[in-house]
Write a structure and sequence with these properties.
The chain is built from ten helices and nine strands. The protein is an alpha+beta fold. The chain has two domains: 40-103, Arc Repressor Mutant, subunit A (Orthogonal Bundle), CATH 1.10.10; 114-286, 2-Layer Sandwich (Beta-Lactamase), CATH 3.30.450. The chain has a six-stranded antiparallel beta sheet. A three-stranded antiparallel beta sheet has the order 1-3-2. Helix 3 (62-69) crosses helix 4, helix 5 crosses helix 10 (261-286) and helix 6 packs antiparallel against helix 10. The longest helix is centred in the C-terminal third of the chain and has 26 residues, at 261-286. Residues 1-33 have low confidence and may be disordered.
């Protein structure tokens, strides 16, 4: 017969073993898609139920949910009423609709991610639509630092990697980022910068740069052509936080060739504007 002390020791050992088993649950997750011992069908069906809703399916009835989820009608009813009770759905007659609380699920994801993670899918879409490189950068002193680059599928690419630095004064992203500075800070930045010409097009005169940055601030986007490298042009838009402050810039860079500045404004800028506004909207909602 075990003593009380031995019973307590055994219980502690069993408890430790149980905790370790619960924590080390990766052994019970099958990589081939098979359901593990930890799989909760009711939770999975609840999430699948929320995924039913969209532009093409703004509402569902109990019967529609049962059909779409391939569950019984009573099960569909329990799912919908449970989601209604916890606030994710509302009921109008026979129809169930999502509530704004569903947005919290997406915001939880985005709030755990940084700017780069939020921007990447939008940048990849821009690169795919335009066939040009899309970049994300921030201001660090008098330089821009690249956080990400989305490359299109084409043989010729610009050789810049994450962490690469370029002088802000001569780059379209840099001028967007400099445009957020007040007059005193801008004067300091331009005094500190090494205003050397990289090409015949590089603007190095301080007064000219101030005028150009003022134009960028007024119109909300920046265009540069051949100032860092002959034949390479760029157009940029800002990314804002919840306070309306510019925290980064997004850019399309390209070999201009026979295209004009008007072509860039008409054909490239709308894609960039759409992406920058979407990124700003999501980022400002969680930061």
């Amino acid at each position: 017969m075990m003593t009380k002390q031995q019973n307590a020791s055994a219980a502690e050992t069993d408890g430790a073993h149980s905790d370790a088993t619960d924590l080390d649950s990766t052994d019970d997750v099958d990589n081939d898609g098979a359901r593990s011992a930890y799989f909760l069908e009711s939770l999975a069906n609840g999430l699948r139920c929320l995924a039913l809703f969209g532009a093409d399916q703004p509402s569902v009835t109990i019967q529609e949910a049962a059909t779409l989820l391939d569950v019984t009608r009573p099960s569909a009813r329990r799912l919908l009423l449970t989601l209604k009770q916890v606030g994710y759905l509302e009921q109008v007659d026979r129809d169930f609709l999502v509530t704004p609380k569903v947005l919290e699920l997406g915001f939880s994801y985005f709030s755990s991610k940084g700017l780069r993670a939020i921007a990447i899918p939008y940048m990849e879409a821009v690169a795919a639509k335009t066939g040009e490189t899309c970049a994300l950068g921030v201001l660090d002193g008098v330089d821009i630092v690249f956080l990400h680059r989305a490359e299109p599928k084409k043989p010729m690419r610009l050789d810049l990697s994450i962490g690469s630095r370029l002088p802000a004064f001569a780059h379209s992203m840099g001028r967007i980022l400099l445009s957020q500075l007040n007059d005193e800070a801008l004067d300091q930045a331009l005094r500190t910068a090494d205003l050397k010409p990289f090409t015949d097009r590089t603007v190095v005169d301080v007064d000219q740069l101030k005028q150009e940055i003022a134009r960028v601030r007024e119109r909300g986007w920046s265009f540069s052509n051949g100032e860092l490298m002959e034949g390479i042009a760029g157009v940029s838009r800002p990314i804002f936080n919840a306070k309306g402050q510019i925290v980064a810039a997004i850019n399309i860079s390209m070999i201009l060739g026979n295209h004009t500045a008007a072509y860039v404004e008409q054909e490239m800028l709308p894609h960039l504007t759409q992406a920058s506004e979407a990124i700003s909207r999501i980022y400002s909602s969680v930061h």
